């Protein structure tokens, strides 16, 4: 895989934005054969739908391939889980000039989520429903986490150079044809158009902690899901990963091989999942 | 006067560190790195594990710091802090331990948390949102191909990333008393920030909610040089034993 790194100069945001917007050849679209073969392999390996739905984001894929994956726990909201949703939405508010600071933007997002939860259309387990019943101390923790997330994203890039970029759009989800209870999800935070005529664009993902040996697989997974969900347009030119805690950034320059490699990893994860589900059933 | 950022400083500090820990790093496996923190980098080889009550008090007070920064007020110190702790999936064991305290121990912990919050209220006024206040900021710097990782969590960070002039400040809140090592622990925090963002922070501070004492220091070359020496010493001290 081909990587690029920001120039080690200050301000960091300038160097990262330069890397994000750098010229590149227009990538191909996702190979339709790859799409078809990947779906067929997943269908063949997918545990029965009675075992429950499987949503494979980068984290789930990497977890599945570990020797001893962490036991799955039922989903419940927490300040750390809510921080990304609220953080990117708050970033969007600040970038759009609706709100001037991340803290104010997060508070506005929380108010908005709670207001939406009052609508009977919103399901009970939604973020808004959870926030509407959250004790004062939990709200403080949520605002703190989300504000930190938004501030780190806002200060990581030079937003005035990212005209037309979108922050916080819903993550693309590819429900596998033939096994729709299995889906692939690409967790990315920002989409930046590069060349409107060619339809090229770049993605930015924000991750916690520090880069690890598997970080490039994470970025490749995001590129794969983007291609699977948008087969009619070029693959993203690059996926830029940001690790604010360690101040690191890297750009995965996307090629045909990137998606092939990511697809192999998904298949491998499905093999592990099938084995684990089988083991649990036998037990 | 804010110090001008030297764009070569972070690279120089990293080179210095990498050179001085190279011999130990060779013996470490990147999949099981040597983990250091400001505390372990400045303490001796043996660090006492705090008793449960002290650990609980520390985490609860940290939650109140975040709440004061994000909401500007605390209504019921123990209730607010404990509800935030209960919402944190990574703290289930500590939550269970707190709930299993007998009535008098729980009441004592609540009273202590409230007392620490009184100090917080006195020292942490409302921070303007234009200062970009962040709470529980996680910082990490990996050295020698990730064989050595220095981590920290700053209770509060203020200011946008430094470009021409140092502009970021950190506040560490401790439920213990400040001691002779406080300044050096803050130095390591400043070093991690310099390594990760390429620019030194302006100022680091520590507030003891036990005594109300405050230690503030501007980040200088001397502070960072001492921090490098502390990290190198800790790596040699702990590298072969971890």
Plain-language structure description:
The complex is a heterodimer of chains A (283) and B (242). Chain A has 283 residues and is α+β, with helices and mostly antiparallel strands. Helix content of chain A is 47%, strand content 14%. Chain A folds into 2 domains: 2-65 and 163-282, no CATH class; 79-157. In chain A, strands 1-9-8-7-6-3 form a 6-stranded mixed sheet, sandwiched between helices. Chain A has a 3-stranded mixed sheet with strand order 2-5-4. In chain A, a hairpin with a 6-residue loop joins strand 4 (173-175) and strand 5. In chain B, 48% of the residues lie in helices and 17% in strands. In chain B, helix 7 packs across helix 8. The model of chain B has no long low-confidence stretch (mean pLDDT 94). By secondary structure, chain B is α/β, with parallel strands linked by helices. In chain B, strands 1, 2, 3, 4, 5 and 6 form a 6-stranded mixed sheet that branches. At the A-B interface, helix 4, helix 5 and helix 7 of A face helix 3, helix 4, strand 2 and helix 7 of B.
Query: Spans of chain A of 5+ residues with little confidence (pLDDT < 50)?
Result: none
Helix fraction of chain A, binned, reads: 40-55%
Total beta strand runs of chain B: 6
Structural class of chain A: alpha+beta
What proportion of the residues of chain B is helical, as a percent range? 40-55%
Residue-averaged pLDDT of chain B, rounded? 94
H-E string of chain A: EHHEHHHHHEEEEEHEEH
Oligomer: heterodimer
Distance between the termini of chain A: 40 Å
**Distance separating the two termini of chain B:** 43 Å
Sheet with the most strands, sense and barrel status of chain B:
6 strands, mixed
Query: Runs of chain B with pLDDT <50, length 5+?
Result: none
Order of helices and strands of chain B: HEHHHHHEEEHEEH
